[in-house]
Every structure is written in structure tokens, then in C-alpha cells.
Write a structure and sequence with these properties.
Number of strands: 3
Largest sheet: 3 strands, antiparallel
Strand order of the largest sheet: 1-2-3
Order of helices and strands: EEHEH
Number of helices: 2
Strand content: 15-25%
Structural class: alpha+beta
Shape: flat
Radius of gyration: 20 Å
Mean pLDDT: 87
Amino acid sequence: MAEPQKLKIIDNPSVGELYANKLVAASFDGGAVVITLGTARFVPEQSDKASKEGTVQPVHVTARLAISPAGAVELANALNAMLKTLSQMQQKAAAAQPTKTN
């Protein structure tokens, strides 16, 4: 199997960073994987009103990423590796905590 080609990364400092804490949608149109991200914003005035009315806090769309299927596979592999690492870190931290005795 051929070794993947190393890429020269050129960082553009003017690229804006976006924050998201919600996945709004993910779809595939036959040519691109489109991922829409958003943010659930906590606004105290709206929170009080929403709890009284029983409404759900809105999620504001902050980014839409359209990538090739190959790019989506790379993204999924990178996220899976990151989640595996986080899970291992969590397990080590839990094992290092002393157990409580009654």
C-alpha cells in the first residue's frame, strides 16, 4: 500500500475562526458532504421567558462546511482518533481517582 503524500500546510492568519456547540445537520448531495453547525446561545431574559412558555432555546447557525467525500472520510478518521484519545484520558483519570469508602 502506498504511503499517503505529506502535504505542505500554508496557514492563512486571516481565516476567521467559528465556534459551534451543536450539529444542526449533515447531508450528502452526491458530490459533497455538507455539515451545518450552530450555537445554542444562553440569554438570561430569553431563558426565563422560554421556561415559562415551554419553548426551546434557538440554535443559531454559525458555519456550513461542504467537503468532498474523501475529505469527509479524513475528517471522520481524525475525529475518531481524537475521541479514542479522549476516552483513554478519561479512563486513566477515573482510575487515578481514589475510591470512596463508606
